[in-house]
Amino acid sequence: MSLVLLTGAAGRIGTFLRGGLPERGHALRCLDVVPIVETRPGEEHVVADAADLAAMIDATQGVDAVVHMAGISGESTWPAIERANIQGTYAALEAARLAGVQRVVLASSNHATGYTPRPDDGLLREADAPPRPDTYYGVSKVAMEGLGSLYADRYGLDVVCLRIGTSAEEPTSTRHLSTWLSPDDTVSLVHAALTAPSPGFAVVWGVSANTRNWWDLTSARALGYEPQDDAEVYAGALVEAYGEPDLSDPVHARVGGEFTTAEYDAEPGTTR
Predict the structure, then answer these.
(1) b/e burial code for range 250-261 (CB count within 10 A of at least 16 → b)
(2) Which one of the listed residues 137, 151, 225, 264 is annotated catalytic?
């Protein structure tokens, strides 16, 4: 059984992974800035800041892989995003390098390319969506992918960046009918990223097998990911409540959805 350092283990995605990765053969060393209240048998626990390089170096000793899910999961101020998300990614990769850990899985996001238009026809490949961040949060995910690429090319690490859509128990909006990543598929995606033979550097979309997907999962499937869930089972209730999505609305017309709208400006009313 491999030992995986899981950062952000107390968060939503971390909780999904704690529930499913051990069944896939991964023992977990769980790290978060807050204690995990509901512990699980066999888990190791570390209370530390994932942006603290010294703490990450200590936590990475003896592990086989790092799954880095720690950080701010939405828009915030630049100083907060810079420390938690950018410094945190650097600390995860540098600690892995110093500890001789070969495999790092990073939680990127669709918001790294949030201003990319939804395709009129067909599915959006990763190559069709270069960096086009929608927020400071999105910028931090571009930086994450850039750091991952550097550590793969310069130091030979295998680094897989998952451009996660909406990882949630279930969809709660009509947009989520396209972007949902179910808890079970979240586990399957991370397991594939951990076990794919020699992926080098890879950036893949992270969504379930949704009928309304606009993201091409070919690259994720090449890692061994086989999504099982489809948000369409929730479509009837969501469409009844909110109506069919207007695909010309920025929420549905851009990869980043509502993150591209004015309400997500971290510093409204200021001159830049």
Answers:
(1) bbbebbbbbbbe
(2) 137
Q: For the sheet with 201-206, list strands across it.
A: 44-47, 26-32, 2-7, 65-68, 103-109, 158-164, 201-206
Q: Give the C-alpha separation, 113 to 109, whole Å.
A: 8
Task: Please state whether the predicted TM-score (pTM) of the whole model is above 0.90.
Answer: yes
Distances (CA, A) of 54 to 88, 99, 140: 12, 12, 21
Residue 28 class from Cβ within 10 Å (0-12 exposed, 13-18 middle, 19+ buried)?
A: buried
User: Tokens 């790290």 identify what position?
Assistant: 31
Q: What is the pLDDT of residues 76-102, one digit of tens each?
A: 999 999 999 999 999 999 999 999 999
- Backbone phi, then psi, for 179, in 5-degree steps? -105, -5
Is 242 catalytic? The answer is no
